[in-house]
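User: Please predict structures.

Assistant: First:
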Amino acid sequence: MTDGQDKLERRVTAGLRGASWNPELVSEDMRTSVHPLRTADDAPVIGYLHRKGGERTAVFIMHPRELLVTHYMVPHLVNAGYAVWTQGPRTVGNDLRLEHESAILDVAAGVVELKRLGFENVVMLGNSGGASLFAFYNQQAVAAPENRIARTPGGKPVKLAEAEMPVPDGFVFVAPHPGQGVLLMNMIDPSITDEDDPFSIDPALDPFSADNGFKDGKDSGASYPAEFLDRYRAAQRARVEKIDAKARALINIRMAARKQEAAGEPIESRYASTYSGIFEVWRTDADPRCFDTSLDSSDRRWGSVWGAKPVTSNVGSVGFARVCTPESWLSTWSALSSNASFDKAGPSITQPSLTIYYTGDNSVFPSDVARIQDAIAATDKQRIDIRGNHHGQSLRLDEESGQDIAARAIVGWLDAHFVEVPA
């Protein structure tokens, strides 16, 4: 095998790893311990502590619905002298039950454990959806217990006032989006006319119609008129409003049945008081910026984070918010109802913060990062732009991995803020 072939093979292998670490970077003296925990509302979660020993600062990595045990930043940070805590949420891979008000109790359990283990500093590294999760956690952690949120957007009581919620010492945001609800409202296809029919369509709002400016091709791409985009964005909001109303109506049906049942009144069905109201949300991969790359211009390639076949991914079995309960929709996926957004929680962040933006990201765009930076209240805040896709993978075979560049930037920032320099 030639040097060129070997380099290509390594690049391809690195691409397949996505957000997972490069095993070649894991040092022999790194140790990982497993920490089963219970949250303030008695949910089981598990944390994984990666370290060599003697570290005073721990970097906390978590996503509200993904398990990031082998996140690509772990070996870089451990080799630089930092412990890394990677934690699984209670809803791994399950959007169906994800409510962010409960997810921040998961975060709290991890921060409490790190403080119990003796770490002087805890720095939150929020990657993608983990960024808005940590911003929301901070908002509630810095609030007086009596001022914390008492109920989820769906009305469920949440024990934030009773929870121990240590305040983080700093934040690193990697490929952050403004919040999962904001992300979805930018991506949701408003041309659907019947929520129960994934094939229904309003031609005047169809983002994949040539009449509206779409062109299927990586080289040329779409060119949407401003008038169409204005109507499209307004219709996206209207669709979210409609799904919000549907979710609240389903919750109201259940709660009304419970009241009738408690009062001994007859109810329509014995199942009505426990009906979860699970529903599907189709066509959620249609952000015009993915197909008209002149919009919010960046280094990104044509297509979405799900791939270069938008008509397929828009109705595929895998997609954002594909299956929800009314509660998970309102708490996580509704830009209008969710509490977990930088617009709402960013002003609570006064701690030092670093934002890493990958300029080839297909789900986070320049205006999104600017919106995040504007929301953060810290005076000590920095943004670094690095070429790479959403997971920091290089955009060209002859480029250094964005993951490696980002790791050096993060270590330098941590060293400047959390390592004592001898006099």
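Second:
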Amino acid sequence: MNLKHLTEVAGFALVAASLAYLGREILVYHDSLSLHSLPVAIWTRLAALGFVYGAAMLFLAEQWHRIIGLFGEEPRRRTWPSYTSTLVARYLPGNVFHIVGRMAWLRRGGLSDSALLRSSALELALTPVAAGILLLPFLPFLPQPIPIISFVIAAFILIAVAAHPRLRSLAFSWLPRLAPALIFGLAFMAVLAGVFVAVANAVSPVAPQSAVAVALGAWLAGYATPGAPGGIGVREATIVVLLSQTISPESAVLVALLFRGVTIVGDVVCFLLGTAARKAVR
């Protein structure tokens, strides 16, 4: 078994374990969860948050457009729909098919297949970098030893880049070029964190700084897991584990489930906005 297959198997195993853990938590706190009857005003607020999240995903569409622009000319009337119209593929059939869909959408345009591959690889790396940058000041609000481990990993990466001449040269040459795209990634992550803070506080009072740390940490965990469509299972399990340090476990489970619902609504909203914009351009 090669490294790729081993990684996929490990990813699927982690997804299965996360879903099993989440299912167990739901069963354990089923009675408590059934007592959480949210008022209509809260559901209306959650629906509005789903729309906000979906609109914010257009920041990621612009980030994708800026990355494409590093390798060739493509108009937004092609790059934005290539992002918004393929979102559903992250759930069905799942995993990386939305990335393949974007590349297929932009074929026979101004970019070669190798340029599209490089653009996709760069986008895959840049989005979690944005989340990591935003998470750094909030790391102390995560339970130990996560902050210590994270700081050690970040320091190791920085030292490795600084010590290796070629990596250092690449970093200095690419950072200014990536900055415009990275800004849009940071904007999306800021909205994602804000939406999570609002969802969490609709269930139980949570310190904003702790909620932001949990939101970004859980997003990164789901993103980094191979075989987790949209981070499903892993993200929710991470939210429950981390958020249970500050609120009751049943409230943490409810927050995880509601946030997943909000993000799914957001994906649909982004898809519809992209479709409407494409028709308007036509």
